[in-house]
Amino acid sequence: MSWLDLQTVMHRVSDINAASAVLSWDQETYMPSGAVQSRSEQLATLTELAHHYMTNDEAQRAVSDFASYSETLTERQRRIGQTFIKDFDRTKKLPADLLIEQARTASLGQDAWKKARQQNNFRLFKPFLERMYQLKREEALCLAPTEHLYDALLDVYEPGMTVSALIPVFSRLKAGTMDVLARIGPLQARVSDEVLYKTFPRDRQLSMAQNIIGKLGFSDSTGRVDLSAHPFCTSFANTDVRLTTRVRENDLRSCLFGLIHEAGHGMYEQGISSEMSRTPSGQGASMGIHESQSLFWENVIARSEEFWRWAFPQLRQTFPDQLANQDVSLFFKAINSIKPSLNRVEADELTYNLHIILRFEFEKALIDGSMSVSDIPEAWNASMKELLGVDVPSDADGCLQDVHWSIGLMGYFPSYTLGKLYAAMLWNQMRKDIPDIDRKIEDGSFSDILNWLRFNIHDYGRTEDPREIIQRVCGRPLTETDFMEYVGSKAQHVYGF
Asked: DSSP secondary-structure letter at 72?
């Protein structure tokens, strides 16, 4: 078989997966609630088809023959082929029945999670979560041997990452976070974020947020924005990228920073080389690298004082009464206030990582069997008290706040913190490569920043793993040091210590 034959296989599988993504996007945006059962069967069918075409005789021959002609291909073509072969090897280890059952359970579980959260009743979600964890343990066992069973799930989202590599990084990050929090504690009264919780009309919030992401570089000719219960980005091609957000009338942060975050994901997807379209390489390198892009735009850029010297006049024009007593400095401090909170999505840059460390520890224990699903609510509340010093008033505000477990994304959560670490490293390198970057941000000129990301990160898609990317761009391996220096400096500026 030839390269064209392998492309045919890749295109077919990619198209089926894109169709599944469309149905999942629709379930979160426009699908009527009564369609959950039928949608779960549709998604299960497409999962079965994708597995079949990924592992059938034609795919097997395409993989077997790749070595015979790979030297005639370009380096990028070889990488695309090698990525498919890696996915083929992984998929061959996973029984079709297991993947079908996971897809069905995810669709039903997501609906159960929504109802459980609305009714603050963990018991409604518990059987679906137990079933999903059982299925994910089976998946991990199929992919074993690994040092830790959870490693097999981590590798799905962050290739090459392991429990043994994460624990020391997270341990140092936790200690550093606690040190900064201790310094901020006595100074909390210096910063007020009350201005963020006034009444901000929904339509003006959404319009302002959409205008900002357009200025940053998200293209509405190849993307769109809709509303959903939980903000997300999904992509069916680099020419069809969908963002969702939610708007809370009494919280300016939710829509504004949520949409900037998702636009970071979206600009990554829009920037992936068209050479990788309809192949498994036509997506982000990893969820950690993906998160580095969203968190870079949301936090490093959009929470900087330079950014608000450009954007604040527009924001105050949109909300003149609500922001009448604010200036750039006060607003910058308000959006960067640091205080432990209940909700991961709305946590500040520093304490956010403690939310992730909690979830990482729970997932690891649930997969290896040292914790049961029944233990989650009580253990969650105790851990939140220990790590963040907050009391959890309800499961809806606690262990039911995230959609991830309902759809089987075990192993995903560490990517968020890895994204912060990668983003800080990329920012340090970008500052060297673009010496006048602060002035560009203050002028509202973001094209050089986006082009730098396009050239160094986006264009490569999934043809490099995270370790290769960070080493190539930054000249050194992953470290938490850049992030702690970045967030520590910002905290010092905000609180004046």
From this structure: G
